[in-house]
Structures are given as C-alpha cells and as structure tokens.
C-alpha cells in the first residue's frame, strides 16, 4: 500500500530525530562467562534508548564500557591490561569516558576509582538500569558508582540488543546469582543471591527470537537447575511462600518442558548445571524432547571426596557417578563436559589421582581446567592457606589437560562414519568454502558449503576429525528445517 504524504513526512521526521539522538558512540566489550556477554546485550539495549549506537572502533568511542570477570586473578589482570590500552587511546580522544561493569566492579566497588585513574564509572551486575543517571553524573564531571545487588531478577523486561549476532543462536538468561557458596568461588559475592526470572518474560523473549528466525536458544544461569519461579523473590525465601505459590511454582524441568513443547523446531541448550541440583526430572525431560540438545556441562572441580567437602560441593564422588550413570542410561548419546580445579589448598597426590580416575570413569567429551587461584573474600581465602606450589599446580593441570585431550579424541573418533544433524552457524574460520556448525552434542563440525545456508539444519556424514572439530560432507537437509 502507498504511504500518504503525512506518513512519509512523519517517517522522515522520525529518522531525523533518531539521527539527532543517536549521535553518541558506545564501545562495549565483555570478558568472562556467557552471562557477562548476555548482560552486555542488555546494557546496549538500555543505552540505545539513551541515544548510544554501538561501535566496533575503540578510537571513535564517546563511552567505553568493559564487562569484567573476577573468577581468577588472571581474568582481572586481563581487564587491567585493557584499561592501559584505553588510557593510551584517551590521549587522542580526551572526551572519552570509561566505565567498568560486572564482577570486578562489584568486587572492588569505589576502590576501582582509586586504583585505576582512567575509570569514571563503576557499575555492578544488578545496577545497569541506573546507567542513564550514572552517565549523566559522569558527563557533569563527577565519578559515579552503583554496586547495589538486587533481590529480584532485574532485567526481565528488557529486550537485549544482540551484539555477537549470527542470527541463529542466542542466550536467554533465566536465573541470576548463586546460593551454593563453594569455598573457592567469588560469584556469590559479585552476583548476589539466587533469583529466577518470570517464565512469561522468558517465553516472550524466546517468542521474539523465534519470530526473527533464530534456531537455537541457550538458557543461562550460574546454576540453571535451581531455577524456581513462585511469583518473585529470592530462592532461599521459598520456604515462606504461600501454599498457592508452592502449588503453582515452576521449576527448571517444567520450564524446559514448556519451552520444548511450545517451540518443537527450536534447539534448546542450557548452562551451567550443578551436580547437586540436577534432578532426574530434568534428565527425563531432556530424554523426552528431541529439540533439547544432548549435552550437559556438569562441573566436578575435584574427584576427591575430601577436597569436594573442603570446597563445600554438596555431593560425593559416588553421587556424581550415580548422576552420570543415570544420564547415560536415559540418554546414551549425551555429551558431558567438566570444569576441574587443580591445586586447591591441601590437595595431595592421592586427591589428584582421584581426579584422574574420576575422569577415566566419565570419559568427558570436553573440559575446562584451571589452576586454583585464591580469590579475596571467599571462605577458602579466609580459612585455608594457598599451599600448593605453582609448579605442582601446573604439573597436575598439564596431566589433567592431557587426559582430557585423549578422551576428547576418543569421543570425536566415535562419530566417524556416522551421519549427524548440524545447525549451520557461520563460515569456518580456516576456510571461506566451508561452513561451521554444531551437533546436538555441541561438537563443532566443518564441511563444504555446497547449496546450504546459515541457519539450515544439514545432515553431515563424518569422515575425519582434528583435536576439536569433526570433518565431513553434507548429504541432505534434516527434517527439522
Ligand atoms: N580458581 C580457579 N578456578 C576457579 N573456578 C571458579 N573459581 C575458581 C578459582 N578460585 C572455575 C570453576 C568453575 C569455573 C567457572 O571456573 O571450575 O566451575
Ligand atoms: Fe566471571 Fe563468575 Fe562473574 Fe561470570 S559470574 S563474570 S565467571 S566471576
């Protein structure tokens, strides 16, 4: 239908208004976990309404925001190095303002302003809605800090601006914070107490993604299995909820089931699971739905019961084996990955061997392994000496990484000869003639592009592999298209 003149004029005025408003440039970058990357998309959305456009060019920026991680000392050092870089850039662009977001902001609070002169703005993970006010302060020449943690899921009503967008897969956060208090972990201090997001707002966000043709959604939380919606509030306060709230509460299994039923063609993933909170109900729901990916990231941290106890992990080695056995018996093709920490205080060679033997039992598909890094304020830092020498930590870490490499290779090899469904995400980094996508088990597959496009589900016959990637050729479309 033709537009009337009036409509055209209004349209032009709108474009001009937007141009006038959108004149400030935001450079935002993220470190750490997927939650941080997802939060940066919320921040971009909040600031878009304030007239900020994102830029990929640091030198151009009016406002630079860095979303930070505190999980290990090295993560914090990386951010400090970036601040040095901003400092150099600011010499040619003196009006540029710099803000730190995320976990380091929460941990260091206003100390950040004293330690790093380049920083104008410090904002914790629950305070992003206050950014417009805080930026006004900064523009008036004052430093600004907001590190107040919340009791509610804070951003349910905000539709994120997709920053790392391939148009195919997106993250949707469902819980925030963590109540588990593992003794090594800074997260409960930087992300606050555990709270869940209203299922309706989760569904609305997924609806929007599906309508834009996204094919895969990852439900995100520090501890997704403890998702519990009973009308709002902290997870730990559920005991005071009314009988009605208890009867109508939605747990993680119910949420997964709801999403899987409503969107049968959408691939669903979730992360991170905590062994002590993962239920049989969740495993059964995974087994029931083809569209829930057969992959669980299930951190173990240590294979020694004594160390698990010292870490305040509330399960034993045997209970973890039982969980693995249950997963494998219900979902035989399920991939499992781990996080492991080596050199936790007091860890002996015996404890280390327990970790190696646990890995032999599970034969993980992937792994993320780290040397223990003492974090200020945690229970381990307060109560235990960081007594394992660095060379011992590093040697144990190397042994664990080597064993994991063997297991990953073994798992990858088992796919050779099989035909697997792959969701195509992007061009392969190594060759523009090849696509890169993932199987339901989260394994990356690279294959010639032929007639296929990004967002297609292709059936790929696997005929080889490298250490981290399966190689093959597409033999047709999957019936999920
Ligand atoms: N030192 C080393 N690794 C840690 N992790 C968490 N805290 C520490 C720490 N203090 C690891 C755990 C966790 C992952 C996200 O980071 O393995 O599961
Ligand atoms: Fe890092 Fe943990 Fe914060 Fe994520 S929640 S950014 S992993 S400290």
Identify the bound ligands. Answer: 5'-deoxyadenosine, iron/sulfur cluster
Share of residues in helices: 25-40%
Q: What is the overall silhouette?
A: globular
Number of strands: 21
Instruction: Assign the CATH architecture of the largest domain.
Output: Alpha-Beta Horseshoe
Task: Give a verbal description of the structure.
The protein is α/β, with parallel strands linked by helices and 481 residues long. It has three domains: 12-146, Response regulator (Rossmann fold), CATH 3.40.50; 169-412, tm_1862 like domain (pyruvate-formate lyase- activating enzyme), CATH 3.80.30; 419-477, Beta Barrel (OB fold (Dihydrolipoamide Acetyltransferase, E2P)), CATH 2.40.50.140. It has 16 helices and 21 strands. It has a six-stranded parallel beta sheet with strand order 2-1-3-4-5-6, with helices on both faces. A five-stranded mixed barrel has the order 17-18-19-21-20. Strands 7-10-13 form a three-stranded parallel beta sheet, sandwiched between helices. Helix 6 links the parallel strand 5 (121-123) and strand 6. Helix 10 runs parallel beside helix 11 (280-288), helix 11 runs parallel beside helix 13 and helix 14 (349-362) packs parallel to helix 16. It is globular and about 65 Å long. It starts with a helix and ends with a strand. The relative contact order is 0.08. Residues 1-20 have low confidence and may be disordered. The structure holds 5'-deoxyadenosine (5AD) and iron/sulfur cluster (SF4).
